[in-house]
Amino acid sequence: QVEVVESGGGLVQPGGSLRLSCTASGFAFSSYATGWYRQAPGKERELVASISKGGLIYYADSVKGRFTISRDNAENMAYLQMSDLKPEDTAVYYCWGHQYWGQGTQVTVSS
Q1: 91-97 and 67-72: which strand pairing?
Q2: Tens digit of pLDDT for each residue in 50-100?
Q3: In sequence order, what are the residues at sequence separation of 6 or more whose Cβ sits closer than 8 angstroms to the Cβ of residue 43?
Q4: Could you read off the pLDDT of 6-20 as tens digits, one per residue?
Q5: Cα gap 22→107, rounded to integer Å
């Protein structure tokens, strides 16, 4: 049974930090790229960051220098460390691996 489960979202003040985690099971996670998308209300889903199976990393311009993506293939996990958060980072964040998606975790940046 394939599962992709995100955790770590929540409410944080501007300038704060959060660490999102993604746990994958039921498929060969380490053989595929993984990453994070986000979708804000009324907006299209956008790619935030991705990391290939070999460690090649992409960041959207809007998060460069503030977000860090990583993965632990031994544990079938991916992470998104988010720092200096801004209200415009508010969205549901989704983890994906291969062709599978999680249900998302809400990140709200507000004072």
Answers
A1: unpaired
A2: 999 999 999 999 999 999 999 999 999 999 999 999 999 999 999 999 999
A3: 91
A4: 999 999 999 999 999
A5: 14
Number of neighbours of residue 17 by Cβ within 10 angstroms: 11
CA distances from 86 to 22, 36, 55, 71 (A): 22, 17, 27, 24
Helical H segments across the chain, by residue range: none
User: 98 in the Ramachandran plot: left (φ > 0), alpha (ψ -120 to 50) or beta?
Assistant: left
C-alpha to C-alpha distance for 22 and 59, rounded to whole angstroms: 17
> What percent of the chain lies above the pLDDT cut of 90?
98
CA–CA separation, 36 and 16 (whole Å): 19
Per-residue pLDDT at 48? 98
Q: Report, as an integer, the average pLDDT of 43-49.
A: 97
Residue 86: what residue type?
K
Let me know: does 9 contact 20? Beta carbons within 8 Å.
Answer: yes
90 contacts 105 by C-beta, under 8 angstroms: no
